[in-house]
Write a structure and sequence with these properties.
Layout (H helix, E strand, L loop, with lengths): L3 E4 L5 H15 L6 H7 L2 H11 L6 E7 L2 E10 L8 E9 L8 H13 L5 E7 L3 H9 L3 E8 L7 E7 L7
Helix pairs in contact: 1-3
Length: 172
């Protein structure tokens, strides 16, 4: 498969939201309660949120296409955790299930990490503790858990684990 990855702009907000919300439904069906997942994966809310977030140049969005079809997205910004001054945070990295295992997620991550490396001391991200597939993916990219955890605001109280990559190692 051949992917086109580019910076996303205002006109991409709805496509980014569609990718994120569909991917949530595919990836989190065994992690989050169904009704809460359906409510959280609200395309209209994310379209508006992404359009607003794009007003801040510190929020960097990428969108990926395969054969002209939007299929992956990534968002990073300066780390939001106070103890990670100088780090970037990958806030969202999602591909549609059809593209899992295709190299698209890796291509998006490597594109972002290549841009992050000269500007930040490292990169961080949060991932559901129960999301073993995503955790393996990030570990292959050089991310390691740093011991920080937080309980997410869903009725089943799932935990998220913070991963960091000091960017001394970037996969080749």
């Amino acid at each position: 498969m051949e992917f086109c990855i580019r910076r996303a702009g205002q006109n991409d907000a709805a496509a980014l939201a569609e990718i994120l919300t569909q991917s949530w439904k595919e990836a989190y069906s065994n992690i989050l309660p169904p009704a809460e997942l359906e409510s959280a994966a609200n395309k209209e809310r994310y379209t508006a949120a992404f359009a607003a977030m794009m007003q801040n140049p510190a929020n960097i969005f990428y969108i990926a296409h395969c054969g002209g079809i939007p299929c992956g997205m990534l968002l990073y910004c300066p780390a939001r955790d106070a103890d990670l001054s100088g780090y970037a945070e990958i806030v969202a990295l999602y591909t549609l299930q059809k593209y899992w295992g295709s190299g698209l997620g890796r291509a998006l991550a490597e594109r972002a990490l290549g841009e992050i490396q000269p500007r930040y001391a490292g990169a961080a991200l949060w991932v559901f503790q129960a999301n073993a597939r995503a955790r393996r993916f990030y570990e292959k990219l050089g991310f390691v858990p740093d011991g920080k955890q937080k309980q997410e605001n869903f009725s089943n109280k799932p935990w998220s684990v913070r991963y960091i990559n000091p960017l001394s190692y970037l996969p080749g």
